[in-house]
Design brief:
InterPro entries: NAD(P)-bd_dom_sf, PRISE-like_Rossmann-fold. Helices cover 43% and strands 14% of the residues. It is an alpha/beta fold and 355 residues long. It has a 7-stranded parallel β-sheet with strand order 3-2-1-4-5-6-11, with helices on both faces. It has a two-stranded parallel sheet with strand order 7-10. The protein has a two-stranded parallel sheet with strand order 8-13.
Length: 355
Amino acid sequence: MDKIALIVGASGIIGSNLAKELLANGWTTYGLARNPKTDIAGLHPVAADLLHPETLQTALADVAPTHVFLTSWMRQETEAENIRVNSAMVRNLLAALSPKHTVQHVALVTGLKHYLGPFDSYARGGSLPATPLREEQPRLDLENFYYAQEDEVFAAAARDGFSWSIHRPHTIIGQAVGNLMNMGTTLAVYASLCKETGKPFRWPGSEAQWNGLSDVTDARVIAKQLAWAATTEAAHNQAFNITNGDYFRWSWLWPRLADWFGIEWAGYDGTVHPLEAELADAAELWRDLATRHHLAVADLHKLASPWHTDLDLGRPIEVMTDMSKSRQLGFMVYQRTEDSFFDLFAQLRADQLIP
């Protein structure tokens, strides 16, 4: 049977990599976004705003997906607003597709805030779970838009009879200009500025992150897990962690990232040095650097997301996830994290996004 995918958030890190993965494996693939990508060969763009359900019928008139992949969210000022807006996006889309009776599977990407709580919660160092994080750990007694999104998928699945999967990555490493959560590119921008100014590549985060074990998720790896879960019956109606499959300490990785750029580095010195403050006045410097090196993007804020990198690297806990659940069901993809960063840096340089 033909597999027809609708990717929500096809312009993002996960969505764009998923589109390439599915297209390479013969899927008919539609990419939905407010401003959809048109630079992926074979991807059919769908321009739509999920917060305006009255427009969805027109936008999706000729789209009858068998599989839906929800890889996008919209950041709001409060968690209550996060819940209202992001649950509505899921609800509106699945309601618009319901009359077609073609959807067989819906995959939702959330993340480790399922275990840690919303940004403000874990940033304050509230009740923190034991690691490694496992899928069977219960929901926290906190407002969390991930839970609201899940509930919308569960309700629509009960109504329409499709299967579902939930995917919980940790810190996506991959390229997407304008993405709100982009540690790899943010660190590449920071390192490039350090090289320009002669300043050391200084660790910005907490002692717990510097010395503790951690893991991250290559966008290519989660793309493969999304495709696997959508087409593997044993993986249906399940939630899965998804990381590269290795563990590391930032105290080990940080010098290696600095070496790639040929710059000096500085480790944890007893103080957190947030990147948001470090890059607060760097917009003009980046614009000048972009002009001299003929870079494709001169707006620092379209490349770097220091606020999110600060949240990741400032956590008061090591963050590592258990991957045994999907491994037992046959998902064996593995990616060396050092190479995830180096591949990204090389791609950014090839695309003239960093000097």
